[in-house]
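User: I'm putting together notes for a lab meeting next week and I want to include a structural view of one of the chains we've been expressing. I don't have a solved structure, so I'd like a prediction I can at least talk through. The sequence is below, exactly as it appears in our construct file.
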Amino acid sequence: MREIKITDIKGIQVGQAENVEAGTGCTVILCKEGAVAGVDVRGGGPATRETDLLNPINMVEKIHAVMLSGGSAYGLDAASGAMQYLEEHDCGFDMKVCKVPIVCGASLFDLTLGNPKVRPDKKMGYQACVNSEMNEFIQGNHGAGTGASVGKLLGFDMAMKSGIGTYGVQVGDLQVACVCAVNACGNVVDYKTNKPLAGVYNPKLNKLISYEDLLLKMSELRKLQDGNTTIACVVTNAKLNKAQCTKIAGIAHNGYARAIHPVHTMSDGDTIFVLSTNEVDVMPDEVGILATEVIATAIKNAVVYAESAYGLKAYKDL
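Assistant: Thanks for the context. Below is the predicted structure for the 318-residue chain, given as structure tokens.
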């Protein structure tokens, strides 16, 4: 097994755009030739686009992009920029009179940081698509992770800075990779060692509050802090149908559970998309196992590469 970049998978482009001053951005995963797709939404407060289309009972088999963005529901507008870009490149579902690009998306809540009146829009989404042509992906405070944060369980004043991460592996001919923007209300741990990385932070003691201590404080809470959501897209070259992509998206949520404590709360909108470029015959369960691994590692990278910003401390500065 060797590490790969997500753009090593044939036909995949990934681009990002952000407004650093406003603290928001977007990340697009493009497949101009189309990719079979599935999705699994498990958080209680999602902001999503075209997820019903991915139900295996529905007609369209392939999509052309996934847009991950900040801005909460406002940020879903960034997908319109991907629509424009793909139309200009003659990509989409052929409806005879025109080709309609199929763009799915999910947004996280980053309006607490920076300027809440500035959100990813059509222009920013289009720019992310243009930037995808440079074949460059930067982890941390970029794209959909620009305004991401973690550790809001006891209030935003005890939160830490997070970001966006990526990771991919190849086993034989099989390739599985992902991007993940981490904006959880809970703590993030290194899933291999269970070492705390970022989360609920005590500024007086300059250290994280352990998950065990948080559990003791849960009885004092009546409602979790709003404004969370971890969103991701897994890409593979395995041959999969829509039902298998949907199942693997569900399996990949195990990566969330390994790395984020707690996860899938009522105030999260946790969502995972899966894209298949349909090149390699493999056992679908193998894809699910690797998807779990790359998700958990991408979550780690999202906080390890994050920089302190907007008044929030990052892992690097603990």
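A couple of points you could mention at the meeting. The first strand starts at residue 2 and ends at 3. The chain has five helices and 19 strands.

User: Perfect, that's what I needed.
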